[in-house]
Amino acid sequence: MTPLPKRKLSKGRRGRRRAHDAITARNLVACNNCGEMRLPHTVCPKCGFYKGREIVSVDKAED
Asked: Percent of the chain having pLDDT more than 90?
């Protein structure tokens, strides 16, 4: 026989247990080309470079 909970967990008790799971900070790294902080393994939104190569051309007028 499999163990089962004796009583239903309330929404508040369940929420208090899960509350700390979603508040972790994002891991940011500096871009090698412009030094702007960005998410790892993504194209830099500021300059459009990834791993030293230009992937996306970004207009300089946005600066």
From this structure: 54
Q: Which pLDDT band holds residue 58 (cuts at 50, 70, 90)?
A: confident
Quote the domain boundaries for residue 34: 26-57
Please tell me the distance from the alpha carbon of residue 59 to that of residue 33, in angstroms, as a whole number.
16
Provide the sign of the torsion angle of the four alpha carbons 7, 10, 16, 18, taken in this order: positive
Identify whether 43 is part of a domain: yes
What CA–CA distances, in Å, run from 54 to 25, 32, 36, 58? 28, 12, 15, 9
33 within some domain: yes
In three-state secondary structure terms, 30 is strand
Total domains, the chain: 1
